[in-house]
């Protein structure tokens, strides 16, 4: 598997939007989520990507994962989302979030998410951030992140629906470097 992870460019936006639509739709199915907000959620994620301006890091940094030339994953760093801001201590409100980490279903469980996280953590390291946040509302992904990152900083029961919980991790950058074995290891 020839995996290349690089910064997203404006030329990638259309393919990234298609990837988001496919992966989010499949993730809703896998997690037995109601579709009542599916299209709204996809539209929200696409809007964030379409607002991308490679020259404005304040709006976000996105990395794309390509396997044999095919876009198979995306992940980003950006200011904390509303749901995280509402549920964390004020002292962390200026930290960043790693999010919108989506891997095409045919390429999951191949280490791509971990490689993509290593690149994103490397960016956080270069920004001299002590912490960053990651959130997740998908049961299937929560299991993955709990295995990799341990217990979440916040676990909000029935946040989206009766059995749909919302997990937030506050991750120390030094620990993330160890977990994801970034390029900037000292």
UniProtKB/TrEMBL annotation:
- Provide the leader sequence positions: none
Identify a single GO molecular function assigned to this protein.
acyltransferase activity, transferring groups other than amino-acyl groups
Residue stretches in coiled coil: none
Q: Keywords on this record? A: Transferase
PROSITE patterns referenced in this protein's UniProt entry, alphabetically:
GNAT (PS51186)
Entry's Pfam families? Acetyltransf_1 (PF00583)
Q: Does the keyword Transferase apply?
A: yes
Gene3D superfamilies per the UniProt record, alphabetical: 3.40.630.30
Where does the N-acetyltransferase domain start and stop, copy by copy?
3-172
Keyword Acetylation attached: no
Write down the CDD domains for this protein, in alphabetical order.
NAT_SF
The record's section on InterPro entries has: Acyl_CoA_acyltransferase, GNAT_dom
Name of the protein this chain belongs to: Acetyltransferase (GNAT) family protein
Which species is listed as the source? Candidatus Methanofastidiosum methylothiophilum
- Taxonomy-wise, where does this protein's organism fall, top ranks first? Archaea, Methanobacteriati, Methanobacteriota, Stenosarchaea group, Candidatus Methanofastidiosia
């Amino acid at each position: 598997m020839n995996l290349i992870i690089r910064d997203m460019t404006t030329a990638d936006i259309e393919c990234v939007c298609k990837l988001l639509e496919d992966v989010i739709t499949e993730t809703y199915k896998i997690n037995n989520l109601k579709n009542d907000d599916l299209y709204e959620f996809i539209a929200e994620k696409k809007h964030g990507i379409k607002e991308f301006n490679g020259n404005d890091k304040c709006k976000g940094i996105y990395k794309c994962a390509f396997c044999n030339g095919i876009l198979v994953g995306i992940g980003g760093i950006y200011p904390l989302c509303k749901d995280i801001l509402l549920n964390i201590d004020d002292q962390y409100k200026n930290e960043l979030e790693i999010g919108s980490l989506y891997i095409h279903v045919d390429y999951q469980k191949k280490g791509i998410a971990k490689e993509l996280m290593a690149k994103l953590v490397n960016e956080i390291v270069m920004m001299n951030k002590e912490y960053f946040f990651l959130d997740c509302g998908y049961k299937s992904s929560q299991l993955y992140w709990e295995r990799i990152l341990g217990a979440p900083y916040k676990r909000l029961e029935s946040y989206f629906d009766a059995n749909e919980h919302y997990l937030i991790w506050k991750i120390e950058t030094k620990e993330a470097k160890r977990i994801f074995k970034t390029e900037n290891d000292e």
